[in-house]
């Protein structure tokens, strides 16, 4: 294993979260940097919503900062605090990775959706033609919804605790993909779904309920969760018991390691990712 000791040359990837105690991203990225011999370190940055704008402003003058990773609850708010955005951020209205340009400007990118779908495909599931039930309408849900639409799903139904957020996401997906059948669910039920994706945080705590009523779930349905801790959530466990194929959340992060390092210029680029063009 190649490993660089942290030195004055080391580049920093700052991971913004609130809270940050549960996050797995720094550990996964640091193992990845070691594996690829990249002289960079990922650090957790616990920043509350009230301090986000000040933290972002500070990053403009942080010269050895390669970029910022973003998770709950900042993905949507941070998209409005940046100097430039990619097409993927414009489309999703949320950013999960920010590149610090040499002059200090911050360019927001979006790789969550790519990571999610890449993870599904790597594990043998192509979402094309699926009738997708999306649980949640937060920052990650936005990216996942847009990427599923880009990858040819047949229909999208969105169920979220706050219906107005689900309606807003549905409207944005319809604007970008007018041909796609998009609806907002009255309740979290399986109905005719062939793919279920949990993007809510329900399932992170041991006493959480299931995020969807599983009556009617058949083994033909594929069930994915984007929660990383626990690795197999109660939803995935219940789906596995019913004979369904399951996709744990870690796959979504693993699916974006290479493209993140390459986009942040920490590693030579091998693959172009379409939605990373700068929005005009
Ligand atoms: N695997 C990965 O690579 C990866 C990447 C990013 C995020 N994640 C995980 O994805 C989850 C969401 O992250 P995010 O950044 O999208 O967060 P977010 O923007 O804050 O969205 C949170 C979502 O969860 C819902 N929610 C929260 N508490 C709930 C409750 N008690 N009951 C019902 N719904 C509830 C919210 O509903 P409301 O709209 O009603 O508030 C919203 O839809 C987190 O678990 C995060 O760790 C994983």
From TrEMBL:
Pathway the protein acts in: Metabolic intermediate biosynthesis; chorismate biosynthesis; chorismate from D-erythrose 4-phosphate and phosphoenolpyruvate: step 4/7
Enzyme Commission (EC) number: 1.1.1.25
Segments forming domain Quinate/shikimate 5-dehydrogenase/glutamyl-tRNA reductase: 128-176
Keywords: Amino-acid biosynthesis, Aromatic amino acid biosynthesis
Reaction catalyzed: shikimate + NADP(+) = 3-dehydroshikimate + NADPH + H(+)
Keyword NAD (UniProt): no
Presence of the UniProt keyword Amino-acid biosynthesis in the record: yes
Designated name of the protein: shikimate dehydrogenase (NADP(+))
InterPro entries xrefs: Aminoacid_DH-like_N_sf, NAD(P)-bd_dom_sf, Shikimate_DH-bd_N, Shikimate_DH_fam, Shikm_DH/Glu-tRNA_Rdtase
The organism of origin for this protein: Paractinoplanes bogorensis
Positions of the Shikimate dehydrogenase substrate binding N-terminal domain: 17-98
């Amino acid at each position: 294993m190649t490993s660089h000791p942290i030195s004055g040359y080391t580049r920093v990837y700052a991971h913004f979260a609130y809270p940050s105690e549960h996050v797995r991203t720094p550990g996964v990225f640091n193992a990845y940097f070691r594996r690829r011999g990249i002289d960079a370190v990922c650090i957790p940055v616990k920043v509350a919503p009230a301090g986000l704008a000040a933290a972002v402003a500070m990053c403009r003058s942080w010269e050895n900062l390669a970029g910022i990773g973003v998770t709950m609850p900042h993905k949507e708010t941070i998209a409005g605090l940046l100097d430039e955005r990619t097409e993927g951020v414009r489309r999703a209205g949320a950013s999960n990775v920010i590149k610090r340009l040499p002059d200090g400007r911050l360019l927001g990118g979006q790789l969550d959706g790519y990571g999610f779908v890449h993870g599904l495909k790597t594990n043998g599931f192509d979402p094309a033609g699926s009738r997708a039930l999306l649980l949640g309408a937060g920052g990650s849900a936005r990216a996942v919804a847009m990427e599923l639409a880009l990858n040819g799903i047949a229909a999208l139904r969105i169920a979220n605790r706050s219906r107005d957020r689900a309606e807003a996401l549905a409207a944005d997906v319809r604007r970008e993909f007018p041909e796609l059948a998009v609806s907002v669910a009255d309740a979290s039920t399986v109905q005719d779904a062939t793919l279920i994706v949990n993007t809510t945080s329900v399932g992170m705590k041991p006493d959480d309920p299931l995020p969807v009523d599983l009556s009617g779930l058949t083994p033909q349905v594929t069930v994915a969760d984007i929660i990383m801790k626990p690795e197999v959530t109660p939803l995935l466990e219940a789906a596995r018991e019913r004979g369904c194929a399951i996709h744990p959340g870690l796959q979504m992060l693993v699916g974006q390691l290479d493209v993140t390092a390459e986009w942040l210029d920490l590693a030579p680029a091998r693959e172009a990712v379409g939605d990373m063009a700068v929005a005009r």
